């Protein structure tokens, strides 16, 4: 160890550290303060629109994990082709968003919520009406700018804390 | 001075007639007070360290458990009490179990001779400083017992480093103390405080720096905490400890930190002397200031390597301490009885010149070894 | 093999710095032969994070493989995406629009900043500065991750680049936020250098330690900041410009000694140069489309292609062989972390245990890339 600068490097470092004592800490006290998520947040659930879905299964084909399972049937009474089962295994999903991009009818959206933990792994598999949009399961604006416009603005760290250095 | 009366006179008068002496009441009172004080200060020190470390790192420290996070230490203690005590299978059981105790008790015994007020000590030994130097070396035996008894290579590495460091840094520490003793004229801690009309940090600035550095190295604090280096040897000598035994090691580390702070306060900063507030409050404030300095250096500085640590002790601090001792001895001998402030100025100038000269001459530890 | 002339007989012992350790960056195991504190030999054992990514590529479509490339070097995901998309575009002959090229450069340089934030912070953590430099750098990395979050919705595995461009355009508030970020980062870098650059203890720990000579570096195929610190002036952005890097003005920092301190300095200077590139790109970005229309299940003509980029860790390359089906026939990744790791044994012998950890931290590896 050479003290060519007579310990000045150490002293300069210590002034920087002590200056942080009276700066605002970069801390967010969850759960009392919550930040606004990004408008294009790729949350852990999918939201399905039963009216628009035609059962074309493009989303299932484009999913790299194979997490989407679709069963269609012809309802012989009025000869309609309907989606009998639309099931997403949320535990297997890697939230890549390729299904949302692939859907030609805008029937699938990523979720915007993040406090959706479950106690059992079986409850992560969601079918049919569990996937519809509801106040706990809002839609995210990923790949859909019209939904993104209606979501609140994201909190950015560059804007929250501006220290004078 | 009501407390003074209580301490000295009341126990003397409140003894039963056939009790051997009032000394035992004095001893009992002080033991209880000291153990309570040490434990309270340790908890306070852990809390201060975590909060200040957090603020310097631009985050908050613990602030959820209890108001302002004051009960965090209690929560940690309870959690560690409830953990399972794991002892490694081939470990030497007696050594492994006794090691924490041997590491903690000497650190607490240091407080027996630290004055909280004029004459308010557990034992006013007239060789107070010598007692402290002797006792503080016993903790090292505890650390080595921990390293050996754990039957793990990491622990042994940590314990070996610790012994090398502690033995090396004893010498500059003692030489810095001897400088203070020369100026004060007595080994007793109480007399040293009473002799500080000017705090000795101004009369012995080089001694303060040497003692602070050597003290930090003795108690394994950053930047010398390679004995328990988190990123190299997992946790050093206390890797294999869990549960209550780990609590004792943890407390031993902070007790030693508070002990070194208390010694620095007594030797260099003037102990309990101060204008308005009661003396014991001044003592606590000064201990907290010195501890804050230790936390500040911990936050800022990276760790040194073991051979650089030894080189710092033997090649940098030891010659400086010897020169400081020589100059102090000459000053005590020839200085006229007035003009203490001129001595302050001259000592500070000498310190700056010595550090400048020695920094130019000082060189690194070993580099790469040919394999 | 005693290293001193004393009459004390010593024996070397083997220490296993295991896969679970506070400072092996990921699951990496080293069996180190020590004589006291001096390292005599080091044997690496890795493979703990092998997930068979190259085999999985043969079962996913070209677009479906992009999320998996994110998880190779999980600290610098945008670079992985970029390298893979360049390889497929070279294979299929797809041209990328101008705006997409500019946004790709912005993302890649922001990713370089974010990666160096982690690496330099972790390096100081290994040196022993108890998380303080780490926390300061992480604060700046948070700002960058917020920008990435705004663009593609995720903070770590972005899946943002597609074959033929990007998946979606940047939102309107991205460029103003970027322009606010750049001066803040500059001032932060100045303060950070004041904090730690001349710290004597850091100089003692890192200067002259773990020297990698120029010849060894060229022989082992080292690339990236490690090679530049050893004196090799090689940067793919200047030597073999991909995308539109030839339109920007920036310098290549390089060191002379090849020790840990030089690697840290090279990374800090690279941060400054990346800020320069970002400023120029943010000014020059043109309007336009961000993706050429390619089918979702693209079938490139049969052939092979190799594309390499200057990722923050070194030269990252993707080698693709196609047989005109929707999935590649073979995909091979040239991982810079693994190839930089092969020189570790040479760098470490003769130093002490403490230096071993520092040298390992300074060559910057991510186990996701080493093991794939």
CATH architecture of one domain in chain A: 2-Layer Sandwich
**Average pLDDT taken over every residue of chain C:** 88
CATH class term of chain C: Mainly Alpha
**SSE succession of chain A:** HEHEEHEEHH
Shape of chain A: elongated
Instruction: Show the largest interface.
Output: A-C, 43 and 47 residues
Write the layout of secondary structure elements.
The complex is a heterotrimer of chains A (165), B (371) and C (372).
Chain A: H1 8-19, E1 46-48, H2 58-62, E2 68-75, E3 80-89, H3 98-102, E4 108-110, E5 125-127, H4 145-150, H5 157-160
Antiparallel strand pairs in A: 1-4, 2-3, 3-5
Chain B: H1 2-8, H2 10-13, H3 23-56, H4 72-81, H5 93-109, H6 128-136, H7 138-149, H8 153-184, H9 189-194, H10 200-203, H11 205-218, H12 244-269, H13 279-300, H14 306-334, H15 340-361
Helix pairs in contact in B: 3-12, 3-13, 5-7, 5-12, 7-8, 8-11, 8-14, 11-12, 11-14, 12-13, 14-15
Chain C: E1 13-17, E2 29-35, E3 38-45, H1 53-56, H2 66-70, H3 77-92, H4 98-127, H5 132-152, E4 161-162, E5 165-166, H6 174-196, H7 200-206, H8 214-220, H9 225-229, H10 236-239, H11 260-284, E6 303-311, E7 314-322, E8 330-334, H12 336-341, H13 344-348, H14 353-362, H15 367-371
Antiparallel strand pairs in C: 1-2, 2-3, 4-5, 6-7, 7-8
Helix pairs in contact in C: 3-4, 4-5, 4-11, 4-14, 5-6, 6-11
Characterization of this structure:
The complex is a heterotrimer of chains A (165), B (371) and C (372). Chain A is α+β, with helices and mostly antiparallel strands. Chain A is built from 5 helices and 5 strands, in the order H-E-H-E-E-H-E-E-H-H. In chain A, 19% of the residues lie in helices and 16% in strands. In chain A, the strands form 2 sheets. Chain A has a 3-stranded antiparallel sheet, with no helix packed on it. Chain A has a two-stranded antiparallel ribbon with strand order 1-4. The mean pLDDT of chain A is 83. Chain B has one domain (93-361). Chain B has helices at 2-8, 10-13, 23-56, 72-81, 93-109, 128-136, 138-149, 153-184, 189-194, 200-203, 205-218, 244-269, 279-300, 306-334, 340-361. In chain B, helix 3 runs parallel beside helix 13 (279-300) and helix 8 packs antiparallel against helix 11 (205-218). Chain B is globular and about 65 Å long. Helices cover 47% and strands 13% of the residues of chain C. Chain C has helices at 53-56, 66-70, 77-92, 98-127, 132-152, 174-196, 200-206, 214-220, 225-229, 236-239, 260-284, 336-341, 344-348, 353-362, 367-371, and strands at residues 13-17, 29-35, 38-45, 161-162, 165-166, 303-311, 314-322, 330-334. In chain C, helix 4 (98-127) packs antiparallel against helix 11, helix 4 (98-127) runs antiparallel to helix 14 (353-362) and helix 6 (174-196) packs antiparallel against helix 11 (260-284). Chains in contact: A-B, A-C, B-C. The interface between A and C is large, with 43 and 47 residues.
């Amino acid at each position: 160890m050479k003290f060519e600068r007579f310990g000045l490097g150490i002293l300069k470092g210590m002034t920087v550290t002590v200056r942080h004592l009276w700066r605002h800490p970069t801390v967010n006290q969850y759960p009392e303060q919550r930040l606004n998520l990004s408008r294009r947040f790729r949350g852990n659930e999918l939201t399905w629109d039963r009216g628009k879905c035609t059962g074309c299964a493009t989303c299932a084909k484009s999913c790299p994990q194979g997490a989407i399972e679709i069963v269609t049937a012809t309802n012989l009474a009025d000869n309609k082709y309907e989606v009998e089962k639309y099931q997403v295994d949320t535990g297997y999903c890697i939230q890549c968003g390729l299904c949302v991009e692939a859907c030609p009818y805008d029937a699938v959206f990523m979720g915007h919520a993040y406090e959706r933990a479950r106690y059992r792994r079986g409850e992560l598999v969601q079918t049919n009406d569990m996937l519809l949009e509801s106040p706990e399961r809002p839609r995210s604006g990923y790949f859909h700018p019209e939904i993104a416009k209606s979501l609140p603005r994201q909190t950015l760290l560059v804007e929250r804390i501006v220290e004078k250095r | 001075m009501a407390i003074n009366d209580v301490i000295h006179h009341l126990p003397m008068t409140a003894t039963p007639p056939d009790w051997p002496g009032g000394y035992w009441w004095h001893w009992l009172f002080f033991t209880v007070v000291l153990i309570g004080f040490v434990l309270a200060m340790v908890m306070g020190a852990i809390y201060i360290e975590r909060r200040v470390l957090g603020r310097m790192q631009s985050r908050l420290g613990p602030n959820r458990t209890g108001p302002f996070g004051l009960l965090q230490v209690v929560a940690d203690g309870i959690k560690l009490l409830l953990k399972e005590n794991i002892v490694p299978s081939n470990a030497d059981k007696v050594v492994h179990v006794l090691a924490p105790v041997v590491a903690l008790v000497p650190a607490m015994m240091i407080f027996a001779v630290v004055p909280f007020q004029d004459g308010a000590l557990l034992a006013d030994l007239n060789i107070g400083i010598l007692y402290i130097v002797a006792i503080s070396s016993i903790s090292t035996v505890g650390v080595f017992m921990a390293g050996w008894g754990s039957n793990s290579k990491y622990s042994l590495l940590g314990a070996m480093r610790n012994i090398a460091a502690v033995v090396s840094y004893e010498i500059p520490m003692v030489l810095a103390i001897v400088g203070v003793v020369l100026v004060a004229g007595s080994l007793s801690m109480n007399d040293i405080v009473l002799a500080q009309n000017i705090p000795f940090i101004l009369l012995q600035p080089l001694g303060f720096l040497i003692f602070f550095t050597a003290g930090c190295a003795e108690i394994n604090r950053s930047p010398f905490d390679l004995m328990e280096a988190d990123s190299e040897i997992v946790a050093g000598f206390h890797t294999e400890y869990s549960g209550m035994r780990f609590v004792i090691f943890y407390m031993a580390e902070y007790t030693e930190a508070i002990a070194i702070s208390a010694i620095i306060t007594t030797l260099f900063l003037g102990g309990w002397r101060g204008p308005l507030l009661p003396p014991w409050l001044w003592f606590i404030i000064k201990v907290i200031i010195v501890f804050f300095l230790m936390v500040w250096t911990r936050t800022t500085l990276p760790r040194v390597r073991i051979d650089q640590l030894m080189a710092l002790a033997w090649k940098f601090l030891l010659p400086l301490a010897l020169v400081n001792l020589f100059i102090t001895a000459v000053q005590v001998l020839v200085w006229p009885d007035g003009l203490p402030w001129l001595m302050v100025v001259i000592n500070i100038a000498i310190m700056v010149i010595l550090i400048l000269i020695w920094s130019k001459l000082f060189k690194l530890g070993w580099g790469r070894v040919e394999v | 093999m005693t290293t001193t002339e004393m009459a004390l007989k010593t024996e070397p012992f083997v220490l296993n710095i295991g896969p679970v350790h506070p400072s092996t960056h990921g699951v990496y195991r080293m069996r180190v032969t020590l004589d006291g504190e001096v390292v005599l030999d080091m044997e690496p054992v890795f493979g703990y994070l092998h997930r068979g990514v190259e085999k999985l590529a043969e079962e996913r479509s070209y677009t479906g493989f992009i999320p998996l490339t994110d998880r190779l070097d999980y600290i610098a995901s945008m670079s992985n995406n970029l390298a893979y998309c360049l390889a497929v575009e070279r294979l299929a002959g797809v041209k990328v629009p101008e705006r997409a090229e500019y946004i790709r450069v912005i993302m890649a340089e922001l990713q370089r900043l974010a990666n160096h934030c982690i690496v330099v912070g972790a390096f100081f953590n290994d040196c022993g500065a108890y998380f303080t430099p780490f926390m300061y750098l992480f604060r700046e990395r948070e700002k960058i991750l917020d920008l990435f979050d705004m663009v593609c919705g995720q903070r770590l595995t972005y899946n943002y680049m597609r074959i033929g461009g990007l998946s979606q355009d940047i939102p309107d508030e991205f460029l103003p936020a970027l322009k606010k970020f750049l001066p803040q980062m500059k001032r932060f870098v100045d303060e950070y250098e004041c904090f730690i650059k001349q710290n004597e203890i850091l100089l003692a720990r890192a200067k002259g330690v773990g020297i990698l000579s120029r010849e060894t570096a060229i022989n082992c195929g080292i690339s990236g900041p490690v090679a530049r610190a050893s004196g090799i002036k090689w940067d793919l952005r200047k030597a073999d410009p991909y995308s539109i890097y030839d339109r920007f003005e920036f310098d290549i920092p390089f060191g002379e000694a090849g020790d840990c301190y030089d690697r840290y300095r090279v990374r800090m200077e690279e941060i400054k140069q990346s800020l320069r590139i970002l400023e120029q790109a943010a000014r020059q970005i043109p309007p336009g489309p961000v993706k050429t229309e390619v089918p979702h299940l693209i079938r490139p003509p049969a052939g092979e292609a190799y594309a390499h980029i200057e990722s923050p860790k070194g030269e990252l390359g993707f080698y693709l062989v196609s047989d005109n089906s929707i999935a590649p026939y073979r995909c091979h990744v040239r991982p810079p972390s693994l190839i930089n790791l092969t020189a570790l044994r040479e760098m470490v012998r003769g130093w002490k245990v403490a230096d071993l950890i520092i040298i390992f931290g300074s060559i910057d590896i991510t186990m996701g890339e080493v093991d794939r």
